Each structure stands twice: as structure tokens, then as C-alpha cells.
Amino acid sequence: MSTGAAAPPITRRGPYANPLSNSLKWLPPKVRGPVIEAGGMVDLLVKIVRSAVLHPRGYWVDVADDMYQTLKQASLPIAAAIFGFLIFMSILTVQFFAMAGATQLFGPLLLLQAMRTFTMWIVSMVVAGVIGSALTADIGARKVREEIDAMEVMGVDPIRDLAVPRVVSLTLLTTLISVPSIIVTIVSMQVGANYVAGQSSADFHSNLFANVSPVQVLAVVANCFLVGLLIGTICCYKGLNASGGAIGLGRAVNQAVVLSFVGVWVLQLAFNALLLGLFPNLGNFR
Fold first, then answer.
1. Which is nearest to 231 in space by CA: 160, 158, 174, 177?
2. What is the pTM of this model?
């Protein structure tokens, strides 16, 4: 009979240490990487939302400072990019309406579609390209300089200290941009109608808001909120996992912007499908 102590249980460690993640080892390497990154982003989003909701104090000063610095540095590029893209889209679209002899439908029809698609895409591209890239570069530079590792050694949570204020700031900014972007859309459409199609302002505004409902305006605000949350999470994840010096940091910024575009595209498909499923009359043109 053995008198020795019982052997301690074997603890499995590593990237495949539980049954769910253990199944990833059977995936091809080209598929495994994106799946792991997507899971990491979802995990980071859960941690950010949990930290911001369960402990809603202590980060609002950083949020206000970050919003102020972002508006100070990026407000003019954001406004110029939104107006430039939308006026180009308006001039291009009004020409098709003029050739079809339906210029009077240009305003209400394009506004109805722009609130759901064009404006959201342009806002997403501007936010990801201007604000998201700067966010990734800021956090990624700290990661490359090993500042985040030093924070963890000192017992400071980098997600709470760096990710939460920036994601909250970017989400609020994107939500606040939603209503001004609709106004910029209307102004750019009117410029296209007046100077390209020769339509008077009275004719342009006569039935412009015939198809706009409060549900659509709230849907734009909610959509911008989700877009800001998505872009902020992706950019923070890429910044927190940057490596390889300056080259790796540049690669992380580029990947963050591209993944933000792809993520917004998937989000728009799901959001518009759900919106039109709950409110089918929103797709009607009156």
C-alpha cells in the first residue's frame, strides 16, 4: 500500500485549455486566426461594457478630455469629409433623376435612403479613418513601448484606464455626429439640386420630409451608437495587441481601419434587416 501523498490534478494551460477553445485547434490556420481575433474582440467588448456599467465613476474626466482633444483636432476634417462625400453623392444622383425626368423625387427619395445607408457609411468611414486610426496609434504606441506591461506590473488595469474612456468617448462622439450628419446631408443635397438640376429651394423642400418619421431618426442615432461602440472596440483591441515596433504599429493601425469597415458592413446588414423586420412600413415611399 502506498503511503505517499496523492498526485495533484493536472492543470491544462495554453490557448486551448477549455473544451470550447480546444475545438479551435482543428480549424485550418487561415481560419483559426480570424476566429481567435473575433473572440478576443468580443471578450474585450464584454469587459469594457461591464467595467463601464458596473463602475460608472472615475473615467468621465478622461472621457471629456478625450472628446475635447478629438473635436479640437478632427472636427474640421470630419465636417469636410462628410460634406465632400455627400455632395459628390448628391451631384451624381441628381443627374440620374434629371435624365429620368423625376427631379421632384430626388430630395425625399435620396434622403430616405441616405439616412439608412449613405450617411451611415460616410460617418463610419470618417470615424474609423480619422478617430479610430488615432486611437489605435495611441494605445499601440504604449503597447510597443511596453507601457501597458508596466501598468499591469503596477496593478493598473489597462482596459479600465485606457480602453474604457476611449471607447465611451468615441461612442458618444459618433452618436452626437448622427443628427448633424443628417443636416449636412440635406444641405449637400440642396446644393446638388440647385446648381446641377436647377431645382428651386421651394420645390426641393416641398415634400422633403414626407417620408421621414421619428422611428427613422431614432434608428440613425441608435445605429451611430452601435457603430461607435464597434469601431472603438476594434481599434482598442488592435492597439492593445500591437507588436513588432513601428512597422507592427503601422500594420495594426491599417488592420484596425480595414476591420472597422468590414465590421460596420456586417453590422449594417444585420441592423437594417432587423429594423425593416420590426417596422416594414419604413421601406415605403409616399
1. 174
2. 0.84
